[in-house]
Specification:
The chain is mostly helical and about 190 residues long. The chain is about 80% helix and about 0% strand.
Length: about 190
């Protein structure tokens, strides 16, 4: 029964489904995962304070370290969405204290560093994230932006090309294709040289 309820946690699509799943579960660990999923659903709807509240409830449950790291990672994204890089960095580092090889937290760290204009730190975090998850188009997109800021246009091109291969016509792929188009038209980088 727990496995079936856990599947509801993973694949719940709406806040009401998460609330119903909470009613069906008494396990603190599963409830922690449900609250984390609900937090992400609230975040998607732009209800960031509700998302933070769900994460706080999850942390009150004395959950396993892996789930705690996921809650911290969720809080990282929520605070980043609020534009609060201070709290985002705080929770990102807490997640990495638990699991230093979490590609999502490393990606988040790279984006936070990028926002703070710490390009060398951003590149290091994004590269490490990509070593662990080579299918993160967003990480390749941000890596390209970092390289662009550093004047490493060939590396930027390669990163954006990879992002557009992973998600052609969507999300980071589209943004990367726009960057490639802009790069190709720039005087600093010529198509015939590539």
């Amino acid at each position: 029964m727990a496995k079936k309820n856990e599947e509801k946690v993973r694949f719940g699509k709406s806040i009401s489904e998460y609330k119903k799943a909470l009613e069906l579960n008494s396990s603190p660990e599963i409830a922690g995962k449900i609250y984390t999923g609900m937090a992400l659903a609230y975040k998607e709807k732009g209800l960031l304070n509700d998302a933070i509240s769900c994460c706080e409830k999850a942390l009150e449950l004395n959950i396993e370290p892996d789930t705690t790291a996921k809650v911290y990672s969720a809080l990282t994204g929520i605070y980043a969405a609020k534009g609060d890089d201070g709290y985002a960095l705080f929770y990102c580092k807490k997640a990495l204290d638990i699991n230093q090889d979490d590609p999502v937290s490393l990606y988040n760290l790279g984006v936070i560093y990028f926002n703070q204009r710490l390009n060398n730190l951003s590149v290091a975090a994004l590269k490490r994230s990509l070593e662990l998850d080579q299918d993160n188009a967003d990480a390749f997109y941000y890596l390209g932006l970092c390289y662009k800021k550093k004047g490493q246009l060939d590396d930027a091109f390669k990163a954006w090309q990879k992002a557009s291969e992973i998600t052609p016509g969507a999300g980071a792929g589209v943004k990367s294709e726009e960057e490639i188009k802009e790069l190709r038209s720039s005087a600093a980088w010529r198509e015939e040289d590539k």
